[in-house]
Amino acid sequence: MILEIDNVELYFKEKRILNGIYLKAETGEVTGVLGSNGCGKSCLLNIIFGSLKPKYKLVRINNKPILKPLFQTKLVAYLPQHNFIPGALKLKTIFTIFKVSWKDFINDFDSFSIYMNSKFNKLSGGERRLIETYIILKSNSKIVLLDEPFSHLAPLHIEKLKALISEEKQNKAIIITDHMYRQIIDISDNIYFLKGGSSKLIKDLKELEDYKYLNMNTFE
Ligand SMILES: Nc1ncnc2c1ncn2[C@@H]1O[C@H](COP(=O)(O)OP(=O)(O)OP(=O)(O)O)[C@@H](O)[C@H]1O
């Protein structure tokens, strides 16, 4: 499956946030999105998901325009920047509701086994983020959008999550954004950089220095 989005024009009042966006993601690949604070990364993922309606946009799957919001097609799962799982739910219930295997999760993250009957809001911020990311990543959807999955995670959990992302991409098109740029560079097959409302496909990591996203000599 090939997902493309272009012709995006997003305004909030008179302020133009996005214009000149082109992004392509496909099954078997991780597509990373990098950019400074406020450049529009979350807005772009929201627009792809269909929960934010810009002035213009064109979403195509396998070259066919998709006119209804993508979330209505059940093709897509989206990890938003904020917590989305109700805090009063027990972990076991959450995995049942989202149809994700608790056993597989415990195989990957055995330290969570003690939490099976705990409520979600009793977990730490990083633990909650890990569970939300895992649930979205392991969903049945063929397109996965991850907004800052690595925030608050301990290094070992980040490494495990990266391995899972690489596994899941075999059957999914994954779009990911995070400020942990080294992790994004590590797992991405393609990287788009957002600046001034438009996207640029990065061919050489040095461009990230030229665009003043990273300090000069970061990649020496
Ligand atoms: N609902 C809204 N109303 C008005 N302006 C908004 C709204 N949502 C986002 N913006 C503005 O749009 C711009 C892009 O926001 P967005 O959250 O997409 O940035 P981002 O690249 O994800 O930033 P960060 O890396 O800090 O999370 C920002 O200037 C933000 O203030």
TrEMBL record:
Listed PROSITE patterns: ABC_TRANSPORTER_2
GO MF annotation terms: ATP binding
Pfam families: ABC_tran (PF00005)
Signal peptide from the UniProt entry: none
UniProt keyword annotation of ATP-binding present: yes
Keyword terms of this UniProt record: ATP-binding, Nucleotide-binding
SMART domains for this protein: AAA
Top-level taxonomic group: Bacteria
Domain ABC transporter: 3-219
Keyword ATP-binding: yes
Listed InterPro entries: AAA+_ATPase, ABC_transporter-like_ATP-bd, P-loop_NTPase
Protein name: ABC transporter ATP-binding protein
